[in-house]
Amino acid sequence: MRIEEVQSTSKKQRIATHTHIKGLGLDANGMAIALAAGFVGQAAAREAAGLAVDMIRQKKMAGRAVLLAGPPATGKTALALGIAQELGSKVPFCPMVGSEVYSSEVKKTEVLMENFRRAIGLRIKENKEVYEGEVTELSPEEAESTTGGYAKSISHVIISLKTVKGTKQLKLDSSIYDALIKEKVAVGDVIYIEANSGAVKRVGRCDSFATEYDLEAEEYVPIPKGEVHKKKEIVQDVTLHDLDAANAQPQGGQDILSLMGQMMKPRKTEITEKLRQEINKVFFFLTTIFFSFLGSIKFG
Question: Where do the TIP49 P-loop domain residues begin and end (predicted)?
Fold first, then answer.
């Protein structure tokens, strides 16, 4: 089993001009609060942006856009970031400045297209077979190294997962042990392991350890219900740029990005216009199948 590290395509966050903006600062009636969520003043603009947020949540803004026009340094980007904060982290928001467009190597249209595709999000749901539970035992088994000498290597790892219904002991490959170490899994953590790819995800610390004092701030989660071996719906929020990058540099694995990469197998490692058209073709094909399936369902 081969495990490869997937590089992140999201931009690195930094302390910038608008990092103090946490929302639009509106009350329950949609009226602007004088000093709230990092905003001072701009009451009329914030209330108008709140109306746009309500329309987006009601799914009445599909295929439409909001244009914020005005002189420089009047708060246009702050309003856009406030709208993004109100919609939540699942909605992609891609800020950019004019200096990013000018480059001697990349065309202006290429930079704009990349940022547009960073701002178009997709939500993909997959049903996967996983082993999920609280770790009650984690013991790697050593064996003599194949190179000889006194060195030893990890042959396999024994892990016990506990749920409300019972406990199951698993014997995993040594390659999964590296993933456990990378996720910093310890006894008392709640994890799940994908049966097909061997990917390990640490969900958090079991809430039975919430009374213990620790220097690190942990996220405590309840012990999983049901059986250890189950089918779980995994939701992935990606953007069109993520799919472009996954196809330009395909990775091995069973997730949706890797499957898209294996399906097309591009020769070049750059994001070309032909590659983007193939991504759009596959995406719209899957969307058409989904809506035709919904249309064939008869209710009542």
Answer: 14-282
